[in-house]
Amino acid sequence: MSPKIGKWFVAVGMLALVVGLVSGIPQAQTPTFKVCSDIAWPPFEWVDAKGQFVGFDLDVMRIIALLKGYRVEIQNLGFDSIIPAVQAGQCDIGASGFTITDERKKIVDFSDPYWESNQAVLVHTASGLNIITAFKAGNIIGAQRGTTGADWVEQNVIKQGINVTLRLYETYPLAEQDLINRRIHAVVEDEPAAKVAVKASKGALKIAGVINTEELFGFLVQKGDPKRLLARINDGMKEMRRKGIWNNLVEAYFGVDVNLDRVAQCYGDLKGWLDKNQPEAYAENLAACMSGQAYKKP
Amino acid sequence: MNPLAPFCQTLEEGSFVRLVCDISPRLLQGTATTFQLTVLAIALGLVGGLLLALGRVYGKKPIYWLSTAYVQFVRGTPVLVQLFLIYYGLPAFEIRLDPLTAAIIGLGLNSAAYQAEYFRGAIQSIGRGQMLAARAVGLTNVQAIGYVILPQALRMVIPPWSNELIYTLKYSSVAFIIGTPELMATGQIIASSLRGPGAFRHFEVFLIVAFIYLVCVLVISKLLDLLEQRVKIPGLEMQRA
User: A40 and A184, same structural domain?
Assistant: First the structure.
């Protein structure tokens, strides 16, 4: 190697080192936390027609971050990978409609509950099954792996000696697809998501009945909460309720007249309010937009 | 249920050996399904691959084109996409396969394309003169292929083909995505269940799963080595490095 080339190597190496160091310096004083979610479960979280991450959980996460002065980075992860990822510190917050259970509490910490849900039993409209006959021996019941829906079938049907087959899927939309294809007899999943599935199936699916499991949803963080996130999340939720943001978000995603297909346009038009640090205006206009009323762009 | 349960209970709660003891019967059930899936898929691929290879080497124009197009399509698309087409796509034509059958067909059709290429390579490595000589002594085309070309080609193909068997065994783990209860799926279900011995112990559960795959692969390689030794014809074997 000639001395000249050697010098070039040193120069490029130094440059790389400097660039590396500079880019490593924290941009500002606002910390960023990674929020992990299985973004395939409307209305809590899903990917809209424009490829944006939307949904109730994600908006709550974004707004709490604004109120409490931190940034969030949202990552799409398989549902049953989220808890191990939080446990390993690869995700800071799990926000994916997690039911608070004793089993999960042993390995992660939960925020205050933010939602109450029951399990719905979805069947094909043409099958004529009801909530009793759906669990007849020999039937195949679908659920998503690692969910309380799957656990319910395991504990309250199979362990009770009723000989049904539990078929586990990567996501609930795949289970619903199989139900529409009539390869399985029923799907057990949380009621709000089941309602969305019924609407999306255009009459193919219906809710045969609801099981009162009275589950509470919470956001979850690493055991011991090393980054002190729970206080911020819980405070943030209280502040959202006090300022009326919470009610508007509930109205936007769970309201009677809401059409979730509108979210691509509504979220696209209105997310500027979040950039301007005005979550109240965002939530109010989102509720209006999602139910088809006039709304104000930022 | 776990037949080892009484013995497992004597082991320390929460320890790794206890976990192995608790979950291995279920994992071995999954392993059995993995084997069933692999063997049937590889058999389907063997028949399909041989026909495709013959089509590509000796086939007239339409057969040559069809078999080439098949090989290119299958090799050019991910096996996961193919499984989704078969499992979630076919019901549109009123064909509803159960997850295991769909996985066998999907992996078998996939493997056929790869095996075809191994067979084609082996067939083409037999000197052209042998085909001419076989025809000259009065064998028909089919007889020449069956009595002269294939007996040599099939021996040559064993080392590369054993790769395909190992790949198929490992690729069979993608079948978990359509709900086939094979080894990977069983591991996923155990690790992500809310209760039970393996719940939320992803690292340890998948360590055991990885170990089982490794043992299976080692056993298969050894068996194929033995097969290669047994069928070899002195003077014809490939040179070992």
Answer: no
Inter-chain residue contact B200 with A83, CB threshold 8 Å: yes
Range of the domain at A228: 32-116+216-290
For residues A72 and A110, state if they share a domain. yes
The Cβ-side half-sphere exposure at B53, using a 13 Å CA radius, reads: 26
Phi, psi (degrees; rounded to nearest 5) at B78? -65, 145
Q: How many domains does chain B have?
A: 1
Burial of B59 (0-12, 13-18, 19+ CB in 10 A): middle
Q: How far apart are CA A178 and CA A173, in angstroms?
A: 9
Same domain, A264 and A282: yes
Phi, psi of B104 (to 5 degrees): -60, -50
Minimum-distance CB partner of A84 among B99, B189, B202: B202
The answer to whether position A22 is within a domain reads: no
**CA nearest B91 in A: which residue?**
A181
Q: B177-231 pLDDT, tens per residue?
A: 898 999 999 999 999 888 888 888 999 999 999 999 999 999 999 999 999 889 8
Total beta-carbon pairs less than 8 A apart between chain A and chain B: 51
Q: What are the C-alpha distances in Å from B205 to residues A66, A84, B192?
A: 39, 12, 10
Interface test with A, best of B174, B192, B206 (most A CBs within 10 A): B192
